[in-house]
Amino acid sequence: MNSENNWTMNPGSNQNELFTTQDGSHTLVAHRFGVSYHSKYGAVTESMHVFIQAGFYPSIIGKNRINILEIGLGTGLNVLLTLIEAEKKGISVVYEALEAFPVAMEEVQQLNFGAYLGDDRYNAILEKIHSGPWDEALELGPNFFFTKKLQKIEGYGAQAQFDLIYFDAFAPTAQPELWEAPILNSMYQALKSQSMMVTYCAKGEVKRQLKAQGFSVEVLPGPPGKREMTRAKKA
Fold first, then answer.
1. Which CATH number does 42-234 carry?
2. C-alpha to C-alpha distance for 86 and 164, rounded to whole angstroms
3. pTM of the predicted structure, to 2 decimals
4. 225 touches 40 (CB < 8 A)
5. I want to staple 158 with a disulfide (CB 3.0 to 4.6 A). Which of 9, 69, 96, 190 is the partner?
6. What is the per-residue pLDDT across 143-190, written as a single tens digit (0 to 9) for each?
């Protein structure tokens, strides 16, 4: 989830609103926060750039298995794209996602990710991601095990467990508490040594907080519509 775009919701709306981004893939505009789950410049394009190309690909070098934590399951797009790429690369994945405000199934069923990615079976996988039980590992594909947890980040206490974190919480303007020292320190503690966290956010204060927790911070070119993104490594 992100996004650093501000949106105006329809008056009286109590549901997330479907929106077609500039690359043709869908996103939802979150009623609760007034921001979108993905960039208006391209939902799939952004997720591929930030999480797959800048995170997943470098993290699997020299490995045949990887543990991933996602902060903000959202539409489930990052899970789906990771599954697709893991199958291509022959990588085993254990994937855990935290989500405090789940997307409704009727909204999931409106998303066009299967058609956009050219394989209708992805629609069934996306529905399984959202309809499956909480706190139970699901095998979404060969050697791809997915667990979702209905909880906020606060109080999450994993220790040196993950090779990669997708930090995809809503932007600091919408959820500032998720980008402050206590949460970022818990992300540092959750990573194995020499592992990384990637996020679309490149705000100066966030980068300063990451460095204060012990991360080495790389500023990378951002996806369309964003000049920069951030990759933080645990030494």
1. 3.40.50.150
2. 14
3. 0.94
4. yes
5. 190
6. 999 999 999 998 898 999 999 999 999 999 999 999 999 999 999 999
